[in-house]
Amino acid sequence: MQVNKVIVLIQVDENGYEIEPVIFNLYDEEGNLKEIPNNLVPPNGSKRLWKPKWDFQLKDWFEGDAESALIERKTSILGQYNMECKEIIETGFYHNGDFFAFSMVKDQANFAQQMTFLLLRPDITTVSWMTENNGKKYYSREEFFAICGSGEMHKRKYMNDYWDLTEYITNVIQDVETLNSLGTFEEAVQKMKQVQ
User: Fold this and answer.
1) Cα 196 from Cα 191, distance rounded (Å)
2) Which helix (H) or strand (E) holds 67?
3) Do 88 and 186 form a contact (C-beta atoms < 8 A)?
4) pLDDT in tens, the chain (196 residues)
């Protein structure tokens, strides 16, 4: 009687480092359960490890290169936070009840161009601008400059948060577990501010 029951195991070297996945038949030709060799171990599963290493005594995976894992995770999470920061900036900002779009590609360039034009042309007294919540509106020069200032403060707030978070992650955090517990960009900023 032949029983075919196969599982995928990971072949590791004598130090516990992964070599390759192996398909292992649990039964021999007579249907007897085979003993699994010590160098074939269960897959890593859900642990996020940079360089997985099998502990033969504990029979579990752990990080085999903590320093490289920390560097890689810092790089990865800072890239994630940079994208989240840009997304928050680009969602827009409020000024006196009006909501303004603030995408990097279009809106910020349009604000800069309009402001430059106003600086070059003091004879222009009003600017029309499309708000996201109140449609097209007309603003005086001074009002438009104040709107641009609000946009700049909105952008600078999140950029400064990102720069502070970058310094905190780079210079203070020294383990992957803490990095993994930070959460989203905004959650990480709050956690950083609580410990500073």
Assistant:
1) 9
2) helix 66-90
3) yes
4) 555 688 999 999 999 999 999 999 998 888 888 999 999 999 988 777 778 899 999 999 988 888 888 998 999 999 999 999 999 999 999 999 999 999 988 999 999 999 999 999 999 999 999 999 999 999 999 999 999 999 999 999 999 999 999 999 999 999 988 999 999 999 999 999 998 7
Question: SS3 of 56, please?
Answer: coil
pTM of this prediction?
Answer: 0.73
> For the residues of 69-91, what is the DSSP string, one character each?
HHHHHHHHHHHHHHHHHHHHHHT
CA distance 108 to 113: 9
Burial class (CB in 10 A: 0-12, 13-18, 19+), 79: exposed
| Tokens 């600078």, residue located | 156
Q: How far apart are CA 95 and CA 120, in angstroms?
A: 24
| Three-class secondary structure assignment of 93-157 | EEECCEEECCCCCCHHHHHHHHHHHHHHCCCCCEEEEECCCCCEEEEEHHHHHHHHHHHHHHHHH
Cα atoms in the 13 Å half-sphere on the side-chain side of 151: 24
